[in-house]
Amino acid sequence: LFPSTTLFRSPEPPTDGTYVSVVTTLLGVSFNSSLVRPEDIPKTWEDVVSPRFAESMLLADPRNVPVYANLFAVLRERFGEDYLRKLAAQRPKLVDSSVPGSQQLAAGEAALLLPNIESVTAALEAKGAPVKTVILEPTVGSEFLAAISSNADHAEQARVFMDFLLSEKGQTVLAQSFRGSSKLGALPGSTPFPAGYVAPDVPAALKQLPELVKLLGIG
Fold first, then answer.
1. What's the pTM value of the predicted model, to 2 decimals?
2. How does strand 19-32 pair with strand 131-134?
3. Residue 217 and residue 88: Cα distance in Å, rounded?
4. Distance CA 188, CA 10 (A)
5. Can you tell me the distance from the alpha carbon of 219 to that of 201, in angstroms, rounded to the nearest whole number?
6. What number of other Cβ atoms are within 10 A of residue 154's Cβ?
7. Residue 12 DSSP SS3
8. Considering 2, 36, 142, 164, which has the largest number of Cβ atoms within 10 A of its Cβ?
9. pLDDT tens-digit series, residues 87-139
10. Cα–Cα dist 202/48, whole Å
11. What is the SS3 string spanning 164-210?
């Protein structure tokens, strides 16, 4: 685990860490549009635990992907332990990660899958699969980091590339490629950065993992 400084988290360039976040893929909830009516698409986390989705939900295992654990830790902090118990009461089917889970979702094995990122469902959606992802608040994300080695052989070229990554053009390319979000704001092809975004703290979330697993009923 490395220290990171999120792009534009402060008005000054990062000075407290080696790395800078260049694009963020947000965690959300995916749904099968053939099984979920437009009016039933979750708009809040409370909608996710509606009785209509009982026994029709896939849960990506937080023990396999640390940022999933981070999201459940945020939900626990915001809504309390009872919220995770409500998720458990939905009797979700556990999947290894959102990638196989998205395949199962596309096949109609469930109505919802969480957590997931847009780039995973976008590839299936492009092939005609009835899957989409919505970003609910609060949420966390996977922050992709970039750095320049202190003893780089071509430091000046590295600085030029970093400047490109942090430019509007570079941020647009990254956001489109990853179906991600940029701290520069709304760019073509980017996902709007939600006001309820919580910067990831994976080490803290992993400390809670045994309790999260128990609350979710998957231990």
1. 0.85
2. antiparallel
3. 5
4. 24
5. 22
6. 11
7. coil
8. 142
9. 999 999 999 999 999 999 999 999 999 999 988 998 899 999 999 999 999 99
10. 24
11. HHCCHHHHHHHHHHHCCECCCCCCCCCCCCCCCECCCCHHHHHHHHH
